[in-house]
Amino acid sequence: MGVSKVLNDVLTRASGKEAPEHDATTAARPATSAVPALPVSGDAVADLREAIRAKLAFAIGKSPETARERDWFAATALALRDRIVAACAASNRTVPNKRVYYLSLEFLIGRLLSDAMNNLGLVETTRAALKDLGVDLGTVEGAEPDAALGNGGLGRLAACFMESMASIGLPAYGYGIRYDHGLFRQSFENGWQREAPETWLAEGNPWEFARPDATYTIGFGGHVTMSMVSEGVIRRNWQPAETVKAVAHDVPVVGWKGRTVNTLRLWKAEAEQPVDLAQFNGGDHVGAVANRMRAEAISRVLYPSDSTSAGQELRLRQEYFFTSASLQDLVRRHVAERGDVRSLPDHAAIQLNDTHPAIAVPELMRILLEDHGLTWDDAWHVTTNTLNYTNHTLLPEALETWPVELMERLLPRHMQIIYLINWMHLEEQAKNGRSDAAHLASVSLIDESHGRRVRMGHLAFHGSRRVNGVSALHTELMRKTVFADLHALDPDKIVNKTNGITFRRWFHNANPGLTRLAVEAVGADVLDNPELLKGLDALAQDASFVERYAAVRRGRKEALAEIIYDRAGVSVDPSALFDVQIKRIHEYKRQLLNVIETVALYQAIKAEPHKDWTPRVKIFGGKAAPSYTQAKLIIKLACDVARAVNDDPEVADRLKVVFLPNYSVSLAEAIIPAADLSEQISTAGMEASGTGNMKFALNGALTVGTLDGANIEIRDHVGAENIFIFGLDAAGVQARAAEPHYARDAIWNSPRLAAALDMIASGRFSPEEPNRFRPLTDDLRHRDQYLLTVDFDDYWRAQREIDAAWNDPAAWWKRAIHNTARMAWFSSDRSMREYAEEIWRVRVA
């Protein structure tokens, strides 16, 4: 396929308004007409049109007259899937020398139709084929449910990495869980978050292939037996008390221009026997399927609450289930292709995405010892030269640990292996003169300080060849804090690999108008090489280009304004500054700081209503974990503040506040290209990287943020003059947190902050329940773990600096263009090439 054809398909996807009435997200794709559409082959259109018609009739069982929008989507997806299979066959004719296996509990892939069309170069062909059938492409795209198989950045990163590996030609499998219900569907009831199951599989998934031939048995509980296999050689064998089947379901991942198609293999849990016939025939119809329900619960829901012991056990069962199935699968594939399991490190690189699959260390050892008869030393060599571990957090509560009692009961053989790994590890310390109790306690895989718990981060560190952080700051803090003592033992193990995003999804697809403008300015090769975006730098002061850039942004803001009205009932002015914070709700991400500044701004406008205030729309989005009470209270406060501000005629259009429900990948694709200001305001030292910050900056939003995570590297690339930095850095946070009464002193020294907290605590935003928000304000006055009070005044300063900058449009758009032009380094293609070269030792073409 020629470059011109691919360019046409990517850049003309928004040739008209494509929104179905029921889904305003798709409406965010603007009309563009700056580049004339290239002709589409009639034969290709006819072929695809007839393929879609055939799928509708023979796979869906509908006629064009009776088909619903969902039916047209399924038929279109199936027709495109056939072309993906053809591309897959073409790209996988030979066994690669080495594969990457990416294990992640989350893959936040969102909708796949637009990705498939773009990367295959079939957007306009599909549009034309559907038009011949009397169907609008935008309507079909809007009928696809979001595959919400992740909670936030971790899962979206995994999805970006999978797409980039395919796009740069790196053979890979992703492994995860096929959750029946992904992250919950969020709604608001009088401002309170309500959760409902996300039913993305209610009508099946046309992208996937069920693989019953790839089914593995996963054990739990039971006991371990010993047998003599030869003189002086004893083998231990696990006899599980319970077994569950892991059944593979494959989703193809199409790379750019369809050159490589990789596989995302998701595991579904099934019972060995679907029903106990004896019980059923005996009249116990519910009890007869109890074992089936217990087994299938493993892949039922993403992140079941772990606030109960049963919830903790289910989470551990999930983690072991998908990790064991994945390792069994890849080892079987390797043996079938290569014969000798000892050569696994030469032909496979396994990446553990966070601590969730850290159980891979003892599980791979178990497979090698029990199923393949390796000696301990050989098995340990294979394991530690095949596994690699990505750490995503420094927060103690997020570094997983499991009670020893639970591990011994659920995975007895694995605890034996962990004990032996730990014993040998600690013996090595003693041999090298590091036998003091404090040192041994810090490097032990078992934490004895608060009940005996297995440290999964330590286990992953010890069992991996390389351990990486995801931004320069995060990696350095790993070396100095959570893994300081382990790092001292192996100084070369920790490396940095700053995160990235796929430009195909977050620029080409999410912002076709801006992509078209970039192609016109610097050439079509920018679609293959984002480094060419740097050519936009020279146009930042070109009046004609700036005008067109601003017009594209205006169109996206108008589309988002429609979504806001449809979903929140709030009318906003697209000419106002769109100030956006969309991410998982967590105290360290400091949505509360943003809300408090909103209250302070509201008070300031009320005090001086005739002042020339900069019109601003505060846009929030994100979900709080169902059991995270404080986070849910922050959402309620934001909603109550929004109600008060938006209903106040004295404030009018100078300040609007919106919390959009049910944040998702598709909603992010509508919001990010319309944002003027990107809020990245986490407490310095606590956000490992962030990827939303990259998506916003690429699309021309200016960042207001702390020196945290990848914000630092974004500043270094876009220029300090094109980003708004405030607050303490990581060292300052550590020093200030050590001071007594820092929150009390900060509030005392900031009348503006004190007044905002007093208004919230007084019940001004909750008159029916005056003390509703006292848990938030009392916590800030007496504890303030995340230093909101300390950073507030500088945050206020930065926001007023932003007001002034917005009032100088020429300077603002110059800064925005510089952001777009200088973000190429944050492509996940670059991240994957670095992983391949320095961690996986795989050659990329």
TrEMBL record:
Alphabetical list of PROSITE patterns matching this protein: PHOSPHORYLASE
PTM-bearing positions, type N6-(pyridoxal phosphate)lysine: K695
Keywords: Allosteric enzyme, Carbohydrate metabolism, Cytoplasm, Glycosyltransferase, Pyridoxal phosphate, Transferase
Subcellular compartments: Cytoplasm
Catalytic activity: [(1->4)-alpha-D-glucosyl](n) + phosphate = [(1->4)-alpha-D-glucosyl](n-1) + alpha-D-glucose 1-phosphate
Keyword Secreted: no
InterPro entries: Glycg_phsphrylas, Glyco_trans_35, Pyridoxal_P_attach_site
Annotated CDD domains: GT35_Glycogen_Phosphorylase (cd04300)
GO cellular component annotations of the record: cytoplasm
GO process terms (BP): glycogen catabolic process
GO molecular function: glycogen phosphorylase activity; pyridoxal phosphate binding
The EC number(s) this enzyme carries: 2.4.1.1
Entry keyword Transferase: yes
Cofactor names: pyridoxal 5'-phosphate
Entry's family note: Belongs to the glycogen phosphorylase family.
NCBIfam families named in the record: P_ylase (TIGR02093)
Stated role: Phosphorylase is an important allosteric enzyme in carbohydrate metabolism. Enzymes from different sources differ in their regulatory mechanisms and in their natural substrates. However, all known phosphorylases share catalytic and structural properties. Allosteric enzyme that catalyzes the rate-limiting step in glycogen catabolism, the phosphorolytic cleavage of glycogen to produce glucose-1-phosphate, and plays a central role in maintaining cellular and organismal glucose homeostasis.
Protein name according to UniProt: Alpha-1,4 glucan phosphorylase
Protein's organism: Methylobacterium symbioticum
Gene: malP
